[in-house]
Amino acid sequence: MSTTPWTGRDDGNGPEHRRWHHAVNEFSSVPGVSLIGFASDAGVRRNGGRPGAQAGPEAIRKALASFAIQPEFVISDAGDVSVEGDALEAGQENLGELVAKQLNDGHLPLVLGGGHETAYGSYLGLARSGLLDGRRLGILNLDAHFDLRTADRASSGTPFRQIAAREAERGAEFAYAVVGISEPGNTAALFATAAELNVRHLLDLDCQERHLERVLDFVRAFVADVDALYLSIDLDVLPAAQAPGVSAPSTLGVPAAVVLEVCRLVARDPKLALADITELNPVYDVDTRTARIAARLAHTLVTSRPVPEGH
User: Fold this and answer.
1) Global model pTM greater than 0.85
2) How do beta strands 228-234 and 272-278 pair?
3) Angle between helices 256-267 and 289-303 (to 10 degrees)
4) NCBIfam families attached here (predicted)?
5) Is the pLDDT reported for residue 3 higher than 70?
């Protein structure tokens, strides 16, 4: 695990000049949002995608560093879990340990990927924390793909199939919903698997800005059915023009304004226990567009949360 000091624009002393790099470098005894990097593209390579997502966490932090943020929001950085070579499974186990620790310390973990193989490590942390004992977990994925592939080895295309198996092992119903599914990006076999697992989904065509209320109603209905919520964001859900720096650019995508509104809605709900933002590939990013929108999504998740009383 590694950590890098945060630096950024500095306009002066005092809370009125506070930016993310100030917030992360401040000590606070109050639980808040804990950033965790998962520096991995092993799952993307196994899935036949474009490698480069290993540098994603660093790029998101760099884009976040100079964002302005109000004094009441508490943020810490727990560092990176790095996957060396093809050691994906060990990396996911290590990520699970770190996520569980942050949860048990009272923080909301916000995991920065990395390919979408990040999601299985994130889930392991939830399972190990004890937070799911006697509770129904709901997983909301903003993604162009179901990521329900069946394969001999884990990859960025298998995490939610792996999670479904683990949920079955603990005798829990697999409650999984996806916003932004691309019809040409998922085979008939994947749609069949989704149907077998009772996965709720919205197609990207039905997630454009004119359909915003329908999207928010879909999310509200899903969240109402669960006790704890895990939000996973694959940046390839966004239009390629807004997020070119991903492993598999979208052919249509869900506009950033819609994705941001979903993040605002979910972050305000006390059921949110964990979130991750995945698939940033800086190698293919144009004008750091993808890193910036990833940072804006992270910022929205942090600043939309209810502020603890007395803070």
Assistant:
1) yes
2) parallel
3) 30
4) hutG
5) no
